[in-house]
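Sat 14:20. Reprocessing the chain from the morning session after the first attempt stalled halfway. Input below, unchanged.
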Amino acid sequence: MNDFNDTTAILMAGGQSRRMGSDKRFLEIQGESLLRRSLGILEEHFKRIIISANDPANLKSLGYPVIRDEWPDKGPIAGLASSLAAMQTDWAFVVAVDIPDINIDMIEEMAALRQGVVAVVPRGENQQLEPLFAFYHRSIGLKARRAIQSGELALHRFVRELPVAYLDLESGIEPGNLNEPGDVERFLRR
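Finished this time. Tokens:
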């Protein structure tokens, strides 16, 4: 088992949950909130964890640093840029709070691909990237800031401009996220 000593886990928990209709972070899945579920898994493998969110007062009781977006309402790339600037390690593993199953084996495979690149991102069928379940080197923080300032807010397009290693995934292996009520129902039925 890898303890990821050189890596800070960044839990992206700043989304607005429009499609879900309620705050996803506090959605109960198998007896615990998505937020606590994610933190529980991350705590087992990462010594350093920060939460990217714009409401630190609501998350203070969790005991982790909560990093506000320097650019509110600019999406995940703003959370990434702000969190990279706040961390103390060279690498970050970024995961969205709405991914209920954090696959540690996949994370270990991705960690092994970090040499000579600044990002490791899973890539599913049809070349679809999973940029919110990925490794990023802190050195991309300035590039992310420049992208935001120039109006390029799409994280998947930003990632494609980086020296990146892709972990190609087989069908059905992609980290699934819960965006709307139907996704939750499907997840609970499996």
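The helical segments are 34-43, 56-59, 76-86, 104-111, 141-149, 155-160, 181-189.
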